[in-house]
Write a structure and sequence with these properties.
3% of the residues lie in helices and 44% in strands. It has 478 residues and is mostly beta strands. Among the domains are: 129 residues, no CATH class; 98 residues, Lipocalin, CATH 2.40.128. The chain has a six-stranded antiparallel β-sheet, with no helix packed on it. Strands 1-27-26-25-24 form a five-stranded antiparallel β-sheet, with no helix packed on it. A five-stranded antiparallel β-sheet has the order 2-23-22-21-20, with no helix packed on it.
């Protein structure tokens, strides 16, 4: 079988200037001693566990003392644990606490005569400044090329209709399900540019993220960020869920499409069919660091559970390829398959569904030989590999078929009862729960993968194309 070595393109070179927003490791270590759960956001903003915000001020030249210490504070004589308004370290690095004035505006400590470390410092130039921040006139030299938002800036958060609670007609209420307690649901629709934000068991969203383009794919990372690709837009939006703002746009040469995330390696793989590329994003600093040039026009991007292999379907030639990520990005041709709707990988076997032929092909990864071909329900549109089972979603009959990946035998068939057209199955990390979306019925079904049964369902006021669930996090006060 033909094998090729993928051509790699180098995308980004890391810098240590204020543009790169890299907080020095010794500063991070010093802060972490008093506040071990501090979030050093990739744009440079420092958020303490209680949501106190500090803005870093980079000196023109960072000194390298043997040991980092606090040189001075405002008010004077304070320690970092006291969370003073200003902290100046002995390497001339400065932290400015975000304060709220009597008018409710965001600001920083106002000096009659700012010290030299502040006069000559500079804020990170890719930083998202807290909404409504106003810098004192005698400190505007720290702004550089940043555009400071005003209090009237609406950001991306928009209000929607008042929330109403949905009933489930005898099924369990979402509030009674421990895996879904304190969760937030982010839902996109094929008919709207906005991303709707729901609490559990509600029909209408609490609010929405206004977008300029209709989303294609969205994924959450670390319950803190939402990555979104959209039609006719050559970038990935990174939304900070703590303050509901687009914090960064990661630009690509062409429109990015599907997103898959390797949480362990902290990498996002983002396909671009137009560019025959898969982009790799470092999720720790939200930067593009590699472009993988591939064969064909990729879609149906699938990552193996161990993060060693990436699969895709060439929609132009109908070939399926595997990229061996731990083997110098070796590209392995799997074979030609018609109208592929989904690829899954389990027990060293590739599972491929055909939406039009209503069958499941099972391929041995090592030999690329056909193991079996199994009939499925009409229009098998999605699959989920979980433990030693494969859950196959049939769109026409709104049914889940369960296959044992040890024996490759069908074991169960569970009807969802939505009477619409099922579209996707999403696993909620760390649980036995999956959400199954139905665009036609505007419903998502809560499915227990272990018990193989429908727990409940929720109908909302808009058709939905994709759904992301995160832990509900504490918002940064605006």
């Amino acid at each position: 079988m033909k094998k090729l070595l993928v051509c790699l393109g180098l995308m980004v070179i890391t810098a240590t200037s204020a543009n790169a927003a890299k907080i020095p490791d010794n500063i991070k270590g010093y802060v972490n001693k008093d506040f071990p759960q501090t979030n050093f956001r990739f744009d440079g903003v420092i958020i303490l566990p209680d949501n106190t915000i500090y803005l870093p001020l980079f000196p023109a030249k960072i000194l390298n003392p043997e040991q980092i210490q606090v040189k001075s504070t405002y008010p004077a004589g304070k320690t970092l644990a006291d969370k003073p308004n200003v902290i100046i370290f002995n390497n001339d690095f400065v932290l400015l606490k975000v304060l709220t004035d009597t008018k409710g505006d965001k600001t920083v400590y106002r000096f009659a005569n700012p010290p030299l470390e502040i006069k000559t410092g500079l804020l990170p130039q890719d930083m998202l400044v807290p909404k409504g921040l106003k810098i004192p006139d005698n400190m505007k030299g720290i702004i550089g090329n940043l555009e400071i938002a005003t209090a009237s800036d609406p950001g991306i958060k928009i209000q929607t209709a008042p929330t109403t609670t949905n009933t489930t007609g005898g099924l369990k209420n979402l509030y009674t399900l421990p895996p879904l307690r304190n969760k937030t649901f982010y839902i996109s629709s094929p008919y709207s540019k906005n991303i709707q934000v729901f609490n559990q068991s509600t029909q209408t969203p609490d609010y929405a993220f206004a977008q300029k383009n209709i989303p294609i794919s969205m994924k959450a990372y670390d319950n803190k960020f939402l990555l979104v690709t959209s039609y006719n837009k050559p970038s990935v939006d990174v939304i900070s869920l703590a303050d509901d703002q687009i914090i960064k746009q990661i630009y690509t040469k062409t429109q990015p499409d599907e997103i898959v995330i390797d949480t362990n390696k902290k990498i996002a793989y983002i396909s671009s069919s137009e560019d025959s590329s898969i982009y790799m994003v470092n999720l720790e600093n939200m930067t593009l660091f590699r472009q993988i040039k591939i064969a064909g026009m990729c879609e149906k991007l699938t990552l193996s559970d161990d993060g060693s292999k990436l699969f895709y379907y060439d929609k132009k030639t109908r070939d399926i390829w595997a990229i061996e990520l731990d083997n110098d990005y070796l590209l392995k041709e799997i074979g030609k398959f018609p109208n592929v709707s989904k690829i899954a990988f389990a027990n060293n076997k590739i599972y491929i569904t055909s939406r039009t032929k209503n069958h499941l092909a099972i391929i041995d990864y090592d030999t690329v030989g056909l193991i079996a071909e199994i009939e499925t329900s009409d229009k098998p549109i999605d699959m989920l590999a979980f433990h030693d089972k494969l859950y196959i979603l049939g769109a026409t009959d709104n049914v889940i078929e369960v296959l044992d990946t040890n024996t490759d035998m069908m074991t169960d068939k569970i009807y969802l009862g939505t009477y619409g057209f099922s579209t996707k199955i999403y696993h909620i990390d760390g649980t036995n729960i999956a959400l199954i979306t139905d665009t036609k019925a505007s419903t998502y079904t809560i499915f227990d993968l272990g018990m193989k049964k429908v727990i409940t369902r929720n109908t909302i006021d808009t058709p939905l194309s994709s759904i992301v669930v995160t832990d509900k996090i504490k918002k940064i006060n605006k």
